[in-house]
Amino acid sequence: MNNSPLHAVSEQDAADYHRDGAVCLRGMFDADWIERMTRAVDRILDDPGPRAREATRAGRSGRFHVNSFLWRWDPDFRALALDSPMIGIAAGLLGAQSVAFFYDQLFVKEPGTAEITHWHQDLPFWPMQGNDILSIWLALTPVTAASSGVQYVAGSHRWGKFYRAVTPDEDPRFTNTALEPCPDFFDATIRAEHRFLTWDMQPGDVLCHHPLAVHGASGNASSTQRRIGTSLRYTGDDARWDPRQFVMRVEGEPEKGLRPGDRPVLEGVFPLVWRHGGPSA
Ligand SMILES: O=C(O)CCC(=O)C(=O)O
Fold first, then answer.
1. What H or E segment, with its residue span, contains residue 224?
2. pLDDT mean values, one per 10 residues, the chain (281 residues)
3. What is the position in ligand 1's atom list of the atom closest to the CA of 120?
4. Cα(162) to centroid(ligand 1), Å
5. 128-129 and 272-275: which strand pairing?
């Protein structure tokens, strides 16, 4: 099982990430990781734990399962978060003095799942501010545009927009009506005005995206192929704790150890995973 990425993050990868807000890095995890995490996901689908959400509407086919903070109780997700190629990828793309783990999410769409992933930016959901917050979406199955590959609006992280958050199950607790809704980039007229990024992926490939990159995904039109992605988020130098209204609750009571404006690094909650020139914490 590889602990460093199978390929170093290149200057070109970093340039693509900064220009477009998203980049696909191929073959970063070996087959042992994929097997281990696929087994972990099977276990979690059977016994999903406290933060699971089923985003499949009543009467619709398939299953859209969303889960989070798995690292806090599942040993395989914990290893993925704290001791895996994720760390080298985050350090390589964030270019930070140090990197801390934020949280994980799991997105499973069974074959025939109609539910889309709404177009959104991540930062409006989070009690954080800053540009140095990287999401690394690891494919655990083959993924194509038709089987719900994540799509990005190229360059949208630089628009200066902060769109209203909409969760996969449209939870009203996130709905801040003071914010502008995110346009529907599936609409052909809107679509014609933008450049989109999406990649066919193999297990072990990762997508890396900026917290303000607009992204979404179709349903899973495949009748045979489950689609599994798990997104792990890491923070770098300019990330700041910002526990405002309409944002998700973080496990581990970070409000007891952090004040607004602090760098989100906190033992047991936001663990430091890498330091420039030093051993991992
Ligand atoms: O996998 C999906 O459908 C959504 C992924 C996503 O929104 C994310 O990783 O931020």
1. none
2. 95 98 98 98 96 91 96 98 98 97 98 95 97 98 97 98 86 88 96 97 98 98 97 98 96 97 98 86 41
3. 7
4. 17
5. unpaired
Report yes or no: 14 and 92 within 8 Å, Cβ to Cβ. Answer: yes
14: which residues sit within 8 A by CB, 6+ positions away? 92, 93, 95
d(CA 124, CA 247): 7
Instruction: Please choose from 107, 199, 226 the residue to mutate so as to test ligand 1's pocket, defined by most ligand atoms within 8 A of CB.
Output: 107
Q: How far is CA 226 from the centre of its chain?
A: 18
Which DSSP category does 156 fall into? G
Three-class secondary structure of residue 207 per DSSP? strand
231 Cα nearest atom in ligand 1: 9
Closest approach atom of ligand 1 to CA 217: 3
Residue 207's Cβ-count burial label (10 Å; 0-12, 13-18, 19+) is buried
Ligand 1 mutation target, pool 150, 169, 218, most atoms within 8 A of CB: 150
> Contact, 19 vs 156, CB < 8 A?
no
CA dihedral 201, 206, 210, 214 (to 10 degrees): 20
Nearest Cα residue to atom 9 of ligand 1:
231
Q: Which domains are delineated in the chain?
A: 16-247 (2.60.120.620)
Q: What is the value of pTM for the model shown?
A: 0.97
Which atom of ligand 1 lies nearest, measured to the CA of 229? 1
